Automatic annotation (TrEMBL):
Keywords: Cell membrane, Electron transport, Heme, Iron, Membrane, Metal-binding, Transmembrane, Transmembrane helix, Transport. Residues 15-185 form the Cytochrome b561 bacterial/Ni-hydrogenase domain. The lineage of its organism: Bacteria, Pseudomonadati, Pseudomonadota, Alphaproteobacteria, Hyphomicrobiales. This is Cytochrome b. GO terms for molecular function: electron transfer activity; heme binding; metal ion binding.
Length: 185
């Protein structure tokens, strides 16, 4: 009986807290959806009704990501991450650490650059047709162009880092058969 309790205690300490796991998967869905819709929109002619409708959904998802990251980042800084049962080797340790820092930076940068693009351009800032986010910026076409470029190059980085991140999680689970994926489940 005591062995089972000790074993489950060890397992629970190697997983992220429930709040961190919920936020991770919620944000993964929101961000991957925003990426796919954003990518699709970049192939549509500006001004066509389908692009406008999809961009409204895209902006709503992006602003949701901004609210969620504002909760998640302080939580991550205060709760930290669980210890590994078997510590990763030096390369994997630094690769994971670097990728996670980059993901956090991009999760903050992308919605902020998207917001700046729309707000400085004087465009709509809808949230799923329910309300408009306040526009806190003056009309500034130069700022709109710069923010749109940051948003575009940020998206290229995000495609690459998210792809590597998912491949790494699958590699740990199916080839190294270690605990890494379990930590987030
Ligand atoms: C995690 C959040 C976000 C991600 C991953 C994301 C991703 C993308 C991607 C991949 C594109 C297509 C590439 C490009 O043309 O830049 C795009 C375009 C766009 N995004 Fe976002 N975005 C996010 C948040 C936002 C937010 C919050 C807004 C505005 C409120 C926004 C507004 C736009 C606009 C207006 C475009 C079209 C830009 C153009 O064609 O010039 N995005 N986004
Ligand atoms: C199918 C998609 C995904 C899978 C399978 C996945 C898997 C994982 C796993 C297993 C971990 C724990 C790694 C560890 O502690 O060593 C993790 C952590 C993390 N993931 Fe993902 N992930 C996915 C999508 C995403 C996306 C789209 C983002 C953000 C754009 C993201 C951002 C993060 C971050 C920042 C961490 C570090 C944990 C933290 O400090 O909160 N993940 N992911």
């Amino acid at each position: 009986m005591s062995t089972t309790t000790e074993a489950s205690a060890t397992v629970s300490t190697t997983r992220y807290r429930p709040s961190q796991r919920i936020l991770h998967w919620l944000m993964a869905i929101v961000i991957i959806s925003a990426l796919v819709i954003g990518l699709y929109c970049s192939y549509l002619t500006p001004g066509v009704p389908l692009r406008r409708a999809l961009l409204d959904v895209h902006k709503s998802l992006g602003m949701t990501a901004l609210v969620l990251i504002a909760i998640r980042l302080p939580l991550r800084l205060s709760l930290g991450e669980p210890a590994y049962r078997r510590p990763l080797d030096v390369f994997n340790h630094y690769a994971a650490r670097g990728a996670h820092i980059l993901l956090y930076a991009l999760m903050l940068l992308m919605p902020l650059a998207g917001y700046t693009t729309s707000a400085a351009g004087g465009h709509d800032l809808p949230w799923f047709g329910l309300f408009q986010w306040p526009n806190l910026l003056p009309l500034d076409k130069g700022l709109e162009r710069t923010a749109a470029e940051i948003h575009e190059y940020g998206a290229y980085c995000l495609y690459a880092v998210v792809s590597l991140h998912i491949l790494a999680a699958l590699w740990h689970h199916f080839f190294r058969k270690d605990e890494v994926l379990q930590r987030m489940l």
